Amino acid sequence: xxxxxxxxxxxxxxxxxxxxxxxxxxxxxxxxxxxxxxxxxxxxxxxxxxxxxxxxxxxxxxxxxxxxxxxxxxxxxxxxxxxxxxxxxxxxxxxxxxxxxxxxxxxxxxxxxxxxxxxxxxxxxxxxxxxxxxxxxxxxxxxxxxxxxxxxxxxxxxxxxxxxxxxxxxxxxxxxxxxxxxxxxxxxxxxxxxxxxxxxxxxxxxxxxxxxxxxxxxxxxxxxxxxxxxxxxxxxxxxxxx
Length: 242
Known about the structure:
Helices cover 19% and strands 30% of the residues. It is α+β, with helices and mostly antiparallel strands. The longest helix has 29 residues, at 2-30.
């Protein structure tokens, strides 16, 4: 009887410990933001893969899942375009507000009851310099999710070219200059990413075998997670065929 009396509390304690452990780690895992790069503008899409070869003007979106509100920043970087701001973009009508709410959000957003999408850029072979032209050009897309605003990124946002659907009368998606124009522009073509956090995030795609899923905690900043997707650009031929 004594042995049984001792055994029952021990079993109960182990069961409680197992329950706490599983729930604690499930909660910790759920707190990590996840992102999926989706190629396509509508309900029919495919998930992006590392080193995807994408034609010019291919539409794509980003699905972000958060169990807590998160500030999310999205950028692209290439030799031909430099660094572009994808989200948040103040000139984007129908864009998703910061911080992203709990659950899943589709970026860039929705306008006139239609999903918005970014597109891969149209790079002409003639427009590339000789160094870039020796290899198929690439674009790296970077996502940063954070528990609070990231000061170094907030300072960078006003000086980057960004996506907008309010520059053209038809509401089409365009890349526009920052409010300060050329005098304040950073992230110009043929320059490095203008922030070390973005560079650390971009480096993740160099050896990645997956482009989608939970983001990676940043090595330097607490409460910040990053991910990136590197694609190959199919260069458009010049209009005269040369």
